[in-house]
Amino acid sequence: MNLQLVVVAIALGLIVLLSLLLRRKDTLVVAERKELDRLKDEFLSTVSHELRTPLTIVKEALDNLRDGIAGNLNEEQKKVVNIGRENVDRLTLLISDLLDLSRLESGKATFNKAAVDLQQLIRSASDNLGPLAERKRLSLITDLPEDLPQVFADADMINQVITNLVSNALRFARSRITIYAGVEDEKLIKISVIDDGKGVSKKQLQMLFDKFVQTSRPQGGAGYQGTGLGLSICKRIVDAHNGQIWVESEEGKGAQFHFTLNTLKSFKSIGASMKKKILVVDDERVLVELLKMRLGEANYEVLIAHDGQEGLETAKREKPDLILLDIMMPKMDGYQVCRLLKFDAAYKQIPIIMLTARGREQDQKAAHEVGADDFIVKPFDPKDLLTKIATFLD
Ligand SMILES: Nc1ncnc2c1ncn2[C@@H]1O[C@H](COP(=O)(O)OP(=O)(O)OP(=O)(O)O)[C@@H](O)[C@H]1O
Ligand SMILES: [Mg+2]
């Protein structure tokens, strides 16, 4: 019997030891991977930064040569310098793409989201690429509804997405590129860049948004400088805006790139549904009405109860984010309500601010004893009340 117990105890001990070791190994693997990711990011951004300075110098030197500052060049020499110069530009683009992507992937990119006039943003992106389209004898058309709603986005980043999609299209289109934007529903806008080029094969459609993916380069396509990072950057940017990006294409029949963005309105309505809920429990009806107005204006949703019993029931039913609780009330006083909530695991995390009568120190002491998080002395300055509320809710 004793031997059996010893065997069982040893077996249990071994299992515990093994699971501890395994867990430690898991933690080590995760920690190692995180460290590797961090080193990769750091390496990428340091190298990219360090490359920029010498690259700027090479560019300047080649420009000096090309412009004859170091003596006149013959045509053959100029050609060679131009090749060098074009490749410096290409390298510069690659480095800034790599930096962008490493920032986006590591979550270090900062997004300055604000209300953006998409109509204006698309027009200016299109204007900037107009001369390139003209040189290539391609027509670049924008087809936008007059009343395109505003979106909530980082304007520069969205500009980068549109610019990359249109630049891609400019490399492949046969005669025209159209930029459409339209309202999908009141929350969503779809932006599309459509060309009449060679399109993308079914096989390639799947992987187009992966890093360094390039399908065949157009033969003799002048100024082809891509690195295959543009679309994966676009995807990261659109993802960070909670939108979607995708491509539709049939080989030989052009490509249609689409992405969606949330309208400012949808963002506001999400904000509205996330309004913090405050329950006001007080039997002084006039005060309650005034508080309701004041809190409503500060963008809180306000629930009301006129006595302790009703307050307790409303708190349990609605689980508000905060409770303003009077002390002297019919049916059940504030202390009792507070105690019942604070000693119940399901509700104790709801902050309670008690509205105590002026100068009654014992009220404040008692409020603490029943677990109230804070108190404010009546009559209070509404600004002080809002500040106190904000410290719990923001
Ligand atoms: N409109 C299009 N029609 C046909 N193929 C396209 C189109 N847009 C993109 N592609 C294909 O997808 C590939 C990836 O595009 P992506 O923008 O990611 O890279 P890139 O344009 O080659 O380089 P960059 O990093 O400078 O943007 C392109 O090289 C091209 O093969
Ligand atoms: Mg591109």
What would your notes on this structure say?
The strands form three sheets. A five-stranded mixed beta sheet has the order 2-4-5-7-6. A five-stranded parallel beta sheet has the order 9-8-10-11-12, sandwiched between helices. It has a two-stranded antiparallel sheet with strand order 1-3. It starts with a helix and ends with a helix. By secondary structure, it is α/β, with parallel strands linked by helices. Helix 1 packs antiparallel against helix 2, helix 2 (75-105) runs parallel beside helix 6 (230-240) and helix 4 packs antiparallel against helix 6 (230-240). It has helices at residues 2-66, 75-105, 118-135, 155-172, 202-205, 230-240, 264-273, 285-297, 308-318, 334-342, 361-369, 382-393, and strands at residues 114-116, 139-143, 151-153, 176-185, 188-195, 245-249, 255-262, 277-281, 301-305, 322-326, 352-356, 374-377. Helix 8 links the parallel strand 8 (277-281) and strand 9 (301-305).
Descriptive labels:
5-stranded parallel β-sheet, 394 residues, alpha/beta, binds adenosine-5'-triphosphate, 12 helices, 5-stranded mixed β-sheet, binds magnesium ion
Question: What spatial form do the alpha-carbon principal axes imply?
Answer: extended
What's the average pLDDT?
A: 85
Tell me the fraction of residues in β-strands, as a range: 15-25%
Number of distinct beta strands: 12
User: Mind summarizing the main beta sheet?
Assistant: 5 strands, mixed
Could you say which structural class the secondary elements and strand pairing correspond to?
A: alpha/beta
Small molecules (ligands, ions, cofactors) in the structure: adenosine-5'-triphosphate, magnesium ion
Count the helices. How many?
12
Order of H and E elements? HHEHEEHEEHHEEHEHEHEHEHEH
The level of helicity is 40-55%
- Indicate the radius of gyration in whole angstroms: 32 Å
Poorly predicted runs of 5 or more residues: none
Distance between the termini: 61 Å
Biggest sheet strand line-up: 2-4-5-7-6
